[in-house]
Amino acid sequence: MASSTSGPKKVLSRFRQVVGLLLPHSKSTPPPVSSTDDDKVTTDDHQVSTDDHKVSTDEKVKSGGEDINWDNVGFGLTPTDFMFLMKCPVGDKYSEGHLVPYGNLEISPSSSVLNYGQGLFEGMKVYRREDDRIMIFRPEENARRMQMGAERLLMQAPTTEQFIDAVKKTALANERWVPPHGTGTLYLRPLLMGSGAVLGIGPAPECTFLIFASPIRNSYKSGIDAFNLSIETKLHRASPGGTGGIKSITNYAPVFESVKRAKAAGFDDVLFLDGETGKHIEEASSCNVFMLKGNVISTPTILGTILPGITRKSILEIAQDCGYEVEEGRIPVEDVLAADEVFCTGTAVVVTSVASITYQEQRVEYKTGENTVCHELRTALTGIQTGLVEDKKGWTVHLN
Ligand SMILES: Cc1ncc(COP(=O)(O)O)c(C=O)c1O
Known about the structure:
With 400 residues, the chain is an alpha+beta fold.
């Protein structure tokens, strides 16, 4: 492999020569997402292969992002330079993982992820501080959540140490894609797939762990953004004994229809109700929900049908620190309709006010803006995440 003095061009040409890969972009504005044969990471018959395409950490392309046109970065996918791949025969240990150029994968048509949905994902962000250093937030929580999901789906998850190490390597290899402080973040998407081939319904004999990255812009403009939600009364997201409490890939396509219908009617997202009674709120398509009444902040209890959000967990703690009474319980629709404030939490939405909820044609509006508890909690959380406020909880991990 190239020495530490190798430049990006040398790395690029080496990959083109050796494995016929094209990096999807060089050091300029990213191209649209494409899927050509040239982009793929080659594989053997049964698995996603990583062996031939390692990038030593010395070969990382770093340029501080001066050449990136941040105006072109939005909320969609902007591919970055490298992704991380690591694989594991089930029942064994993960072999050492590697950074490879971002590109398509080749995977067995009979892999369990493609046939049976044996897959999990995570979502996390890399934040740039004012002093230009970069950090991540509570990565051990993402590692643990993936391990919980892997247990449920009979997959082998990386250990917490392996997970965090992979996250660090991916973040550092793509450091130039971490947007300037306060403008956005580098979103990381860890994926765990049953990549081995199976024919009969059953777990894959091999798992692949992968992390790719994409910069995203901040959406929230100093407390004024807010969601308009509708309560979904036809479809359910999760049911008792199902997989609603883990980040299974199979939880997401089934909500597309509800969200599409809601968006067509002018809403931003839907709130799902519990599958048993249809009387209690659970969560939105990809974020948790909270309500405020007086001095009490409540959120639905995690009972296996709601994703245990890391932002949710952090906000529960921050709210208590700020002097609010905090409750977890079953929240009837009527209670949320009578709330003073409602807000959503998640890695993507951070903490975002709900401006209105519509339920069976009835629309209820809530307080939004800078003078809200939502804004207070959001400011406290993002202060820690971006290094503006001292992290007394040990939640942040510095990467450089
Ligand atoms: C269904 C669902 N609920 C809640 C969340 C929020 O979780 P977190 O705060 O860990 O991002 C997410 C996002 O990951 C999600 O997909």
